[in-house]
Fold these 2 entries.
Entry 1:
Amino acid sequence: LITITSIAELRDITDRARRDGRSIGLVPTMGSLHVGHRSLVRAARAVDDVVVLTIFVNSLQFGPNEDFDAYPRDLAADAEVAEADGVDVLFAPPVVEMYPDRMRTAVHVAELTEGLCGESRPTHFDGVTTIVAKLFSIVGPCRAYFGRKDFQQLVVVGRMARDLDFPVEVVGCPLVREPDGLARSSRNGYLSAEERRAAGVLSKALFWASETIVHGERDVDALVETIRRVVAMEPSVHLEYVEVRTTDHLARVKVLDGEVLVAVAARVGSTRLIDNVTVTLGTEGVTADLGVVAYGP
Ligand code: AMP
């Protein structure tokens, strides 16, 4: 593992790798690595010759009252994880390296960023697409790996790559869960023991909802109502949204058909959590993708 903090040094390595005909896989993260991030590294390791993991807590994607300062940072622990997982290059630039001057440029993806998390986080996705565009341009990867946990982000980044002709394949990887179903997140560390227990209701509601679809439910309003009722059993969990969208363009759906995203966002105490499942309703029947459970840190 080589740890690098400068753009020029990283470019040296990735330029050389490309010249030697080696493929580069990029895994962008904000660090505080857990088994969700590690699954992206594993996916990259299986396909690409050089795996570049980036760790950068990107101020641009946090709103003014969000947790930028409190966001967990532990580079030494992350480097150990990266080393154990076979990452080749860890890029952990300081803020001045990425933003030496106030940014005058932003990448904005229209429409796809407007609903869902874009509702309560109006500047978030511009921050994400801007940093990801910078990383694409710095690293020059063949493939970039993103988790389906942040499903809207995956769709938005994929659209950006397509619209701006980045020669990068955006790869979506399964949502990784705790044994009780809670989606793994660096923010889970903010939860008290009681909040952590209550937060389990989000995945339970989504699993239950997907089960009702498998058993014939086709009405979106009824589905949303089911999720709201289940989550209401934990009064400390406050739903921000429950939405059903198409997985390709995130369009609203009225009647369940094709491949749909069932997504929730909620506050548990002061912690904001998101989760989703996708369900495919085809001629061959109904299949739900609930993600995968992974044990360990
Ligand atoms: P973050 O560090 O939270 O910005 O996440 C970096 C990448 O890891 C993003 O592509 C996330 O979607 C992905 N990721 C985070 N948590 C999970 C999870 N539980 N399952 C799958 N991917 C995840």
Entry 2:
Amino acid sequence: MRILLSNDDGILAPGLSALHAAVASAGEVTVAAPDSPQSAAGHAITLTHPLSVQRVKLAGGFEGMSIDGRPADCVRLAIRNLMDHRPDLVLSGINAGNNVGINVFYSGTVAAAAEAAMFGIAAVAFSASMEGEVDFARIGALCRSVLDCLLAKGLSPGELVSVNIPALLPGQPRGVKVVRQSTAGIEDLYDCRKDEAGNECYHIGTEYSFGPCDDDTDVIALGQGYITVTPLHIDLTNHKQLKSLQSCNWPDKLG
Ligand code: MN
């Protein structure tokens, strides 16, 4: 099996090494990741400069392609140009921090996997809580166990799955829950300060919380200490509203 690994925390991130170590025995692994941290890059791609690629040797004892782009750039460039063969599976992470609820939209980790899904390749994004004990080897082993279950069940081409590992507190993880993505809003605050020139500057706070979430969602299950598995899809269409809008009386000609 050909596996492409990427992330959004950058090629030097410990989560990437941990994922590499955890999945190296599952197939032939290629690494293509951003040369700098790209958290919250979402699904951005680079239009402002050509992407430069450096082949680097990493501390984990493996090689990777370091790219001065966004997570989605790395995956699409690797699939289109850098790999000799199209990968069978794309893995992203392990992100330093969870990606549940609407954070999925901001996440570069999920975007890297989603980019692969757009190519019709099965992809899994891994994100882990950085609270409690942060033992990347243990987190990596948990990710591998989840991946093995997903592979045993079988991932179809273009299938996209987001996996979140809870804080490794005593008694956690409590198991695995397959849950839907919460759509609750994020309650965060911008802190206004003045810069040296006296201009107002808004800093996004590091602390945030979600608004009320339904019980059967990723946010709740993760908070209860479960590993969460959430299947996602690229189709953002609201199918119910599609029917309702199609049934409207649209004029034959506008303007
Ligand atoms: Mn990140």
